[in-house]
Amino acid sequence: MSLSSSGSGLPTMAAGLGLRRGLMDSLADLPEGALDFMEVAPENWISLGGRLKKQFRSFSERYPIYLHGLSLNIGGMAPIDQDLVLAIKDFMAEHQCPIYSEHLTYCGDEGHLYDLMPIPFTEEGIKHVVERVHQVQDLLGQRIALENASYYCAPDQQMSESEFINAVIQEADCDLLLDVNNIYVNSINHLYHPYEFLAALPLDRAKYIHVAGHFEEAEDLRVDTHGADVIDPVWSLLRAAYQYCGPLPTLLERDFNFPPVSVLLDEIAVIRSHQSDYAGVQKETGNGKEMGKRVAR
Ligand SMILES: [Fe+2]
Q1: Distances, alpha carbon 40 to alpha carbons 120, 166, 209, 218, 234, in Å
Q2: Average pLDDT for the chain
Q3: Residues whose beta carbons lie less than 5 angstroms from ion ligand 1
Q4: How far apart are CA 17 and CA 253, in angstroms?
Q5: Of 95-109, 230-244, 273-287, which has the strongest mean pLDDT?
Q6: Sign of CA dihedral 62, 95, 129, 74
């Protein structure tokens, strides 16, 4: 079956913020145009009713809502939760969500680990994930996007992480959610070059981008917390991503330790400023290793 791309028709030059319960009140009164989209974990909102559902609808009527799931468990051994996927499909239709993404990880077997674990970078791992992505995409009737994840141990590696990601994205015929903070965090924890890693990804399939802050546990250990300001090396990596892909929609991930919303909007302004610097760049298709072409505006 030929599937439509996830997020087809997403605008470029769009900057968004995650809708978290702790931010709802302060985001309710934002002026028009302060954000271009919001992102939620569908599992946190699907079964809500009453006041929270009404509040959520007031956001979905104002903003495109991008879905970034937590519990699909695409690399896990337990069967795909078809009820969850169908509920997400209905939720996407109800709120006209343009894209559903997940982590290229596993998060449990019978139970839920409440953590995201790396899938072994093996041929068997590729085959396993690809079959499961096909199942999900067939149920949804469209592509999903998978995110390059942060991880702290990598058992049983037969190939590099970028080779693994390329094979999964290509063979599953799905899209890529590019997280530049995860690349930076992994590059320190696993001693690789972040720009070489970025260039090796299937960037022609990138649909949108995550940027976030993290915690510096030690000089050689970073933890992907989403609880701090974005640091300069991660902003630089975001600019490199725009250089390849053009200014794709970009989400500021902030999950706790919330500063005043004005501080988050300052970071949204930084995203927009970087995007406008690459406004003329269009993504090269078919080869993620070429820089994007700058075209006349
Ligand atoms: Fe992310």
Answers
A1: 28, 26, 14, 31, 22
A2: 88
A3: 179, 210
A4: 6
A5: 230-244
A6: positive
140 near 85, Cβ under 8 Å? yes
pLDDT for 107 = 72
Tokens of 253: 């991930």
Neighbours of 80 (CB within 10 A): 17
What does the alpha-carbon distance between residue 13 and residue 161 come to, in Å, rounded to a whole number? 29
Domain-wise residue ranges, the chain: 15-236+248-272
Alpha carbon of 141 to ligand 1 centroid (Å):
24
Centre of ligand 1 to C-alpha 211, Å, is 7
What is the C-alpha to C-alpha distance for residues 163 and 148, in angstroms, rounded to an integer? 12
Q: Can you tell me the distance from the alpha carbon of 66 to that of 75, in angstroms, rounded to the nearest whole number?
A: 22
* Residues 118-141: b if buried by 16+ CB within 10 A, e if exposed: bbbbeeebbebbbebbbebbeebe
Q: Which two tokens stand for residue 9?
A: 């028709």
Residue range 15-236+248-272, CATH number: 3.20.20.150
